[in-house]
Amino acid sequence: DKVETCHSWSTNTTQQIDLALNIFFMVYFFIRFIAASDKLWFMLELYSFVDYFTIPPSFISIYLGRTWIGLRFLRALRLMSVPDILQYLNVLKTSSSIRLAQLVSIVISVWLTAAGIIHLLENSGDPLSFSNPHELTYWECVYFLIVTMSTVGYGDIYCETSLGRGFIVLFILVGLAVFASWIPEITELIGHPSKYGGVLRKEGGKRHIVVCGHINYDSVSYFLKDFLHEDREDVDVEVVFLHRKPPDLELEGLFKRHFTTVEFFQGTVMNPVDLQRVKVQQADACLVLANKYCQDPDAEDAANIMRVISIKNFSDDIRVIIQLMQYHNKAYLLNIPSWNWKNGDDVICLAELKLGFIAQSCLAPGFSTMVANLFAMRSYKTSPDTPKWQNDYLCGTGMEMYTETLSTSFVGMSFPQAAELCFVKLKLLLLAIEVINDDGSDSKISINPKSQTKLTPDTQGFFIAQSADEVKRVWYYCKNCHEDVRDEKQIKKCKCKNPPAISVVPPRNGNRQKSPGKVNSMSSITSPGRKHYHGRPTGRGSAGSVSERPFGMMAEDQGKDFDFERTEMKYDSTGMFHWCPARSIEDCILDRNQAAMTVLNGHVVLCLFADKDSPLIGLRNLVMPLRASNFHYHELKHVVIVGNVDYLRREWKMLQNLPKISILSGTPLSRADLRAVNINLCDMCVILSAKIPSSEDPTLADKEAILASLNIKAMTFDDTIGVLTQ
After folding, report:
1. pLDDT tens by residue, 188-239
2. I need a labelling partner for 714 at 20 to 30 A (CA). Which of 73, 402, 523, 589 fits?
3. Is residue 525 within 8 Å of 444, Cβ to Cβ?
4. Distance (Å) of CA 712 to CA 236, 242, 522, 608, 622
């Protein structure tokens, strides 16, 4: 442990090993020097200085016949290159393991190097006489530095030389600050190597779904509020969220409140390793959420479609439900070979849903509110202080759609008889049933079928009710036991012997899905029969009574000017929508004077906020339901769009074949433009915004629509104009 010794090189094994190692490092030094692109910078780097101070003393000691430890302890700095070597050998793969190896190697190399400096200074003594050496072994110096880091120098070993004390002062000032930040990070990496890593552990028989895409507090809270709603009762499905960023404190708190049913993993669906971790191949479904407030909807859709491709490449039979922002991006999903709607794959287009609901509300006011209440899970509480109409409305908002298997007591009944029994006896509203073909090969959903339709065993019914527990009455109902029961809450599972045909068939609980979700190989007959009119329209009058019109599907036709009497009615290739030859947008543009001179009544005014470069929202989805072929041509409502013409030029390609569309170049906030289109005489006014919402404050996303609504409501009109036009 002395700093300097006198030994013959031929008899000193340690010195011989040291020489062999230094020859290797010298050869390695020259190889690096030759390969270096910048020779000067190479000569000044850290490892070059280590070689300067460690290689020459080995050769000099042979010539002098004496060994001096000198600065050979600097060789410990070479330990900092160990993480790089392990990466080259493919030992370290994850970012956490690489970071841990780097921190540990730096801490150890600095400790060993600093211990070597203390060992040299203490055993040599203070210059110039070197008369006060303090003998310490190297490992005592290592121990001393560890104690110094933990107790700031108070320990059983201490420095006696002035140089040693001076170095410790610098080491405490610099090293303590550095180690104080590194040690907690090392502890975090070792103690919590994968807080959101690991592998999903599935309990026997428990199902799970995987949710990915746009994961933040708002999207997750809305999803869990609906999916884990108490009305669903016994939903025993674990929700697994997969996202590449760790959750923030607010989102982490939400996960902890639902720790029994929710689990979060850090990763990405683009990596097959992460998909394997969450066991996507065993999941019931994989949901891809979209960011409603994204700056670029097309880019958001492209990213989500790429996620679907990655999921389908990993497991082609997994059911995928994806949210998309733009309607035209749905076509890209059909290019995925394993995308199959028959297996439950589905796409939810937010713009299509929103505009479709608005269009149906133009035909039947209140339609969108009713459907939104049905498909959103809500609970309500009546209050004696609340007006009766408000309690009744809240009761309606708490209704949802469920599916359940009808008991054997319904077998042989017609649909009207079953619906009457459900409403009067069970306080349930039966809307439709699943009808299986005679050969049993296919099935369809029949809404309010004729009395000739008889119910068979295991018939699936579609109900509107408050909760899944209420819907179970239709499965428990027994004519022998419950025929005289007055209180529907007393209808529970009876103890009478069930028929053998039913005893082996478990009930299909409707609380697993709110709406009739996955119905494989079913053809819906919800749309009424379509009539094709081949006569000419008699006039442009306003549309007839809304109650007489069935809900149209979607439309595609157009008539150019305001003389519709001679327009021949045409339909698109499907026969579902009115159609007209393509027209130039200039033929449909009106200025304020032309609009004021036009007698507009019973029309639809579309107030559109959009810039020239705003993302397309797909106005086709709004106009097509208003052009359904089950309306006569003269019943079609004229659509007048008030907005930016430059934006509408980009939308026009999808609108040019739809009839009765006019455009007024203006702004929805201009009262002069609104008066020009006779907004007081319209059947419906629709306010839309195609502008990109602010990502900083999503609550301001609807500011244009709210301001326009208040502006229209504050306008005053001469009532005599309406009388003269009627």
Report:
1. 777 665 678 888 888 777 899 999 999 999 999 999 988 887 766 666 889 9
2. 589
3. yes
4. 49, 45, 45, 14, 21
